[in-house]
Structures are given as C-alpha cells and as structure tokens.
C-alpha cells in the first residue's frame, strides 16, 4: 500500500453530454478522514461509485489502497462502502445478513461471529439482530449497512450520509467509530450534507461543485479569513464556494484552495 489511500488524476465521468465529475484530482493520505461536500447533483455519489469500482471512469485514473480502480477484485477486498441505500436482503435477519457478507468476504467463521457480536453491540442492535430486516426501521437498516461496510476492517471506508436516519445516540456512535478508525490506520471518505459532522471529524474537506473540486483544505484553514483572521462557519464557506455560479457554469466561485 502506498502512503496515499486515495489518489486520482483527472478522474472524469460523463453521462452523454453531461459531465458529472470533471477532472478530479485527489491525494488523500492514509489514516485520515476526508470530508466530501457538495450540493445536490455535484457528483459526489458518482465519484464514490468510480472509486469503489461500481462505475467506470470516462477519463483519468485512480488508485484506492494502492490498487488501480480498474482492477475491481484488488480494490474491493481493501474497501468498504456504505451507499445511500445499503444493499440488504429483507428476508434475512440482521445477523444472517452480516454472516452472509462475512462469507462473501471469506472471513474466518469464528472471527466473523465475534466481530458481528461486537459491532451489533456497539450499535445497540443485539436485541433486534434476530428479527427480519424487512421489519427494521430506517435507522436499524442504516446500522446494518454501516456494520457490513466495516465488517472486514477495510483499509478505506466510503460512507455516504452515514448518520442518515440515526437517532442522536447512534449518530454519536458512528462519529466515534469514524474517529477511532482513522486513529488506527484506516482512511474514511465521508460524504454528508451535515456540516458539523465533517467539521468535527475531517482532517481535510473537499467541496465539489458541478463536478469540479472548487476548494480543499483543513477545516480550520477553510474557516479562517485570510485578510482579517476572523473565523467563519463551514456553512459560510460552503455557501460562498458553491454560490454565484450561473446554470451554464461559466463563472467560477471564489476558491479558498490551499496553494
Ligand atoms: N446513471 C446516471 N445516468 C445519467 N446521469 C447520471 C447518472 N448518475 C448520476 N447522473 C448525473 O450526474 C450528476 C451528479 O450526480 P451525483 O448523484 O453524483 O450527485 P451527488 O453529488 O451525489 O448528489 P446528492 O447530494 O443529491 O446525492 C447529476 O447531474 C446526475 O443527474
């Protein structure tokens, strides 16, 4: 594995005439949390789908955990992905679903059982683990989705709105889990519209607008006004760098990108 958990060079995805992701360059170090922000339709999910090999780039290159994103088998064994709608089998119980994923991942059975028990307990799901997923609430399904994404202790974890539908305690558990993963040697690529979550957790924030990375930097760097030294909120930054662009996209927003 290289010292970059995720690296892309001019990564591009076009759908017909529309460019969903436009020459994206990322260099995300290992053991860090990258907060990926952007308005609806900016290209965040498309980026994550390319990085997790679920869709093929139209142009450009990328590596994740040292593996080329065109090499699906090499990438998939090193990553976990929580998409917006986690793929779950409603007819299975939560525990059966997790055993099924552990089997797909070839995890040794005894280790998998211990890890499943531990994670179910961590997310307060032990009491419901033997009920069918079809009877789960949205938040309970989200918890199973998070657990299955991290079951094999991946090097790089992609999370799309991980706290969606979760009660405050579960959301806190997710935030603590992300922080402790990055305290180890995992890298977390976190896409969310909940700005305080990225503000708290991210080492670096990147903002995507209309398929392009319009700003990138540490939260404190982005929030400090260079001229006055005053603090502003991440919401101010987000609105500033994603505002003031016409529909034809010909006017670039103000960039706070680090030199
Ligand atoms: N399969 C597809 N076919 C055609 N266009 C697509 C497809 N997937 C995404 N797009 C387009 O690509 C652009 C980026 O979409 P994407 O889902 O990546 O945005 P996003 O930043 O994840 O948005 P949100 O925050 O709303 O989830 C949008 O204009 C969308 O319509």
UniProtKB/TrEMBL annotation:
SUPFAM superfamilies: P-loop containing nucleoside triphosphate hydrolases
Keywords associated with the record: ATP-binding, Nucleotide-binding, Transport
InterPro entries: AAA+_ATPase, ABC_transporter-like_ATP-bd, ABC_transporter-like_CS, ABC_Transporter_VariousFunc, P-loop_NTPase
Residue ranges annotated for the ABC transporter domain, each copy included: 6-235
Claim: Nucleotide-binding is one of the keywords in the record: yes
Molecular functions per Gene Ontology: ATP binding; ATP hydrolysis activity
Keyword Transport: yes
Highest taxon in the source lineage: Archaea
Pfam families named in the record: ABC_tran (PF00005)
Name of the molecule in the record: ATP-binding cassette domain-containing protein
Organism whose genome encodes this protein: Halobacterium bonnevillei
């Amino acid at each position: 594995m290289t010292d970059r958990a995720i690296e892309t060079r001019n990564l591009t995805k076009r759908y017909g005439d529309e460019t969903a992701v436009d020459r994206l360059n990322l260099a995300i170090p290992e053991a860090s949390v990258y907060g990926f922000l952007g308005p609806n339709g900016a290209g965040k999910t498309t980026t994550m789908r390319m990085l997790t090999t679920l869709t093929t780039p139209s142009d450009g290159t990328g590596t994740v955990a040292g593996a080329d994103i065109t090499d699906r088998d090499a990438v998939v064994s090193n990553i976990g992905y929580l998409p917006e709608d986690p793929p779950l089998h409603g007819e299975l119980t939560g525990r059966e679903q997790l055993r099924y994923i552990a089997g797909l991942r070839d995890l040794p059975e005894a280790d998998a059982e211990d890890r499943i028990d531990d994670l179910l307990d961590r997310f307060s799901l032990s009491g419901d683990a033997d009920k069918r997923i079809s009877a789960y609430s949205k938040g309970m399904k989200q918890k199973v989705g998070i657990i299955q994404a991290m079951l094999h202790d991946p090097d790089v974890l992609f999370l799309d709105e991980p706290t969606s539908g979760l009660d405050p305690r579960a959301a806190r558990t997710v935030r603590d889990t992300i922080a402790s993963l990055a305290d180890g040697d995992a890298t977390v690529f976190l896409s969310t519209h909940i700005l305080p979550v990225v503000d708290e957790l991210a080492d670096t924030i990147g903002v995507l607008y209309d398929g392009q990375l319009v700003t990138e930097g540490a939260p404190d760097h982005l929030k400090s006004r260079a001229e006055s030294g005053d603090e502003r909120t991440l919401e101010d930054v987000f609105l500033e760098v994603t505002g003031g662009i016409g529909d034809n996209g010909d006017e670039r927003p103000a960039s706070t990108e680090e030199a």
